[in-house]
Design a protein that fits this description.
The chain is of the alpha/beta class. The chain folds into 2 domains: 146 residues, Ribosomal protein L4/L1 (Ribosomal Protein L4, Chain: A, 3-Layer(aba) Sandwich); 41 residues, no CATH class. Helix content is 34%, strand content 14%. It contains 7 helices and 6 strands; from the N terminus they run E-E-H-H-H-E-H-E-H-E-H-E-H. The protein has a 6-stranded mixed β-sheet. Helix 2 packs across helix 3 and helix 4 crosses helix 5. The longest helix has 17 residues. It starts with a strand and ends with a helix.
Length: 206
């Protein structure tokens, strides 16, 4: 699969031959769905909690007469049926994370990259070097490339001035190639890879 390499000013500076095993798969929604669920479940804080019977104050002494009250023979004020009592079977702090094998996560990433390539939502640029490192200039360059909601993936390190300028643009994410993931790819309309990112991904999946 051939794709033009562009500059930030939307000028063609050659082409790149993308690996079909990474960018040419037939995307499967079930694989992508499982990877997104894995990521979102792992990031949940899981700090939800309610007060149980051991956490609330209340007497455990028999507080009504055994007979003659006309009611039940209660012996604990901390049960859930009384005001100020505990919550029955309420949530407790826990991890929501579940396992997904390393091979499956790698497969999900390849399917996400292929989904963007198949939908014509993949752009390869030469690099992210910005002339002045200004947000205003970068917005103008993004407009030339037709970028509105985009994920930009650089090489091993993100260009500092580019990252600083892009951080002020809403709905634009910038990541080094090590941080690329299925959820961030799918949540943005366009995926922008630098030439260095493409080389790193092909070396990673070789």
């Amino acid at each position: 699969m051939k794709l033009d390499i562009k500059t930030l000013d939307d000028k063609s500076v050659g082409s790149v031959d993308l690996d079909e095993k990474i960018f040419g798969l037939d995307p499967r929604a079930d694989i992508l769905h499982r990877c997104v669920r894995y990521q979102l479940a792992k990031r949940q804080a899981g700090t939800h909690a309610t007060l149980g019977r051991s956490d609330v104050r209340g007497t455990t002494k028999k507080f009504v007469k055994q007979k003659g009250s006309g009611g039940a023979r209660h012996g604990n004020k901390k049960v859930n049926i009384f005001r100020g009592g505990a919550k029955s079977f309420g949530p407790t702090p826990r991890s929501h994370a579940h396992d997904l094998t390393k091979k499956f996560r790698a497969l999900g990433l390849r399917h996400a990259l292929s989904a963007k390539a198949k939908a014509d939502e993949l752009i390869v640029i030469e690099d992210t070097s910005s002339a002045d490192g200004k947000t205003k200039s970068l917005i103008a360059q993004f407009a030339k490339l037709g970028l509105n909601k985009a994920l930009v993936v650089d090489g091993a390190e993100v260009n500092e001035s580019f990252g600083r300028a892009a951080s002020n643009i809403p709905e634009v994410d910038v990541l080094p190639v090590q941080g690329i993931n299925v959820y961030d790819i799918l949540r943005r309309d366009k995926l922008v890879l630098t030439k260095a990112a493409v080389e790193a991904l092909e070396a990673r999946f070789k």
